[in-house]
Amino acid sequence: MTPKDRIFKVMSEEKVFQTWYSGRTALLDDACHKLNPSGAHGAVTAMHDALALANLVYALPKNSAAAIEEAFSEYYIERIGPVTASFNASKPLSMVTGRGIIGKIALFLRKYTPLFIWDTVIHLNNNGNGKPRVLIVGAGLGGLMLGALLEKAGISYAIFERTAEVKPLGIEEEFIAMGRPTPKITVNREGGPPLYVVSSLPQVKYTGYYSYIVSRPLFYDLLMKQVPVHKIHFNKRVLTISDKEDQVKIQTSDNCVYEGDILVGADGAYSAVRQRMYETLKQEGRLPKSDQEDLPFHSTCLVGQTEPIDLKDFPEFQEPLCSFYNTMGKDSPHTWVVFATAQKTLCYMVIHHLDKASSKAAEEHRFRESENSQWGPHAAQAMVEETRHFPLAIGTKKMTMGDLYDLTPKDRISKVMLEEKVFQTWHSGRIALLGDGAITAMHDSIALANLIYALAPNATTAEIEKSLEEYRNERIVPVTESYNTSKSFSKIMERGIVGMISLCLFKNIPLWLLNMIYKRQILSRPQCGFLEEVPLKGSVKALRSPSTEKARAVYKKRMAAVSI
């Protein structure tokens, strides 16, 4: 049944050469390593070599022998580790198919060896410069921001994301181009005229920047451009973490083990890294009682974004400076918010204010005791049907939320919990945590990147712990203030006597006091000490950032040493 030209006899050679390049010449595939084809290793590693080499050739700054040789060195350093690991993994597997006593012993061992023995430990390479190797769990805004900053700093890192993809720096111009200035919030009661308008224009005077609305998928794409593709690993759900013997390791659900010097949990409100770290601290009696409590939420929220639409029916969104339009339900515990993006899509949130605080654990217990789930695949659609009739206070004044739902692809509507909590434990040993709020998470990333950059070569566990404590000390105050401000403003949307009093106080707040609040909100503006300093554009200076100052001092010292 097989054509004769499709039958071959080959030799199954196996060897990893140590010399992969010289001058302007580099080797690929069988030229620098030959792996057993029966293990399906050779072809895959050859293609991985090609990808790595293509990335580095593409990124060459100039056509000089020195630049090319440096790129080839990076190619070798990146690929020699995984190729050798693949070679070592294929050798015992090939022994299983052998004959005689060796094959029988190998087969017996393979059948009865625990799974964890076969795990591949993947070591991040630090290029021999003594800089820490950083494992980042979570490819959200905070994780991507930290990766982008470490990339700029020349620090070895890898990002591990449990999902198959992330839903859809020198990037200021791109960010502003994709954003829409939205310096106002217009609040009204259902069926009534605007109650008040909050303007953030004073912030423009204080900082030199507007408040921008940016589509989250577009912002993700912008950050993703700053991180090389091969440094983000998808479908990597973290099962266990280990912080021992001057190294930290993570084991993922595909039975891979990754080793580094610092582990950063950037994986959201229900962080697997935080849960594992807290379990260990609790067993040791070192976890504060407040950090052992469930993450609470007082609201659930339906969020969505329409397809690009013709804004002729929404004159409010055709103005250069737009507003958030916030409507409080008259007879229902709901608030709905609508705003526009620069891409002519409408974004919305429908918030359900709960009578009392709940938690994810409580909701899951309630689900187990009943036949209905608040968080199943139909939860968002159920809330869509419940709120379709909510009127819009914009456009023709005859439209409802249902009109926006009908313009929205189903995969762009989600139901989420609006959790709020500031944990007190941010690090332990070589493990650190990032926040989950978009802006505060990115500020956390900046402070942490500064302190990682400033670490001495081959930093000890004690030195890393000291830097992580400095990170917490710098960020805990602005994060707590942001949390308290958010709670205060959310009370305005509450129902009952608390909401009425809060609304009355806010409507009559003196302008000087409101401006004081605005100033406090923009005081924390950390910068990367190892990048060019962003000049002050507004009238209010940012608070001193110890991490920025520390990184900038180290950067200047290193640059001075290079110039000698």
TrEMBL record:
<keyword id="KW-0812">Transmembrane</keyword>
<dbReference type="Pfam" id="PF01494">
    <property type="entry name" value="FAD_binding_3"/>
</dbReference>
<dbReference type="GO" id="GO:0004497">
    <property type="term" value="F:monooxygenase activity"/>
</dbReference>
<feature type="transmembrane region" description="Helical">
    <location>
        <begin position="497"/>
        <end position="518"/>
    </location>
</feature>
<protein>
    <recommendedName>
        <fullName>FAD-binding domain-containing protein</fullName>
    </recommendedName>
</protein>
<feature type="domain" description="FAD-binding">
    <location>
        <begin position="133"/>
        <end position="165"/>
    </location>
</feature>
<comment type="similarity">
    <text>Belongs to the paxM FAD-dependent monooxygenase family.</text>
</comment>
<keyword id="KW-1133">Transmembrane helix</keyword>
<dbReference type="GO" id="GO:0071949">
    <property type="term" value="F:FAD binding"/>
</dbReference>
<dbReference type="InterPro" id="IPR036188">
    <property type="entry name" value="FAD/NAD-bd_sf"/>
</dbReference>
<keyword id="KW-0274">FAD</keyword>
<dbReference type="InterPro" id="IPR002938">
    <property type="entry name" value="FAD-bd"/>
</dbReference>
<keyword id="KW-0560">Oxidoreductase</keyword>
<dbReference type="InterPro" id="IPR050562">
    <property type="entry name" value="FAD_mOase_fung"/>
</dbReference>
<keyword id="KW-0472">Membrane</keyword>
<keyword id="KW-0285">Flavoprotein</keyword>
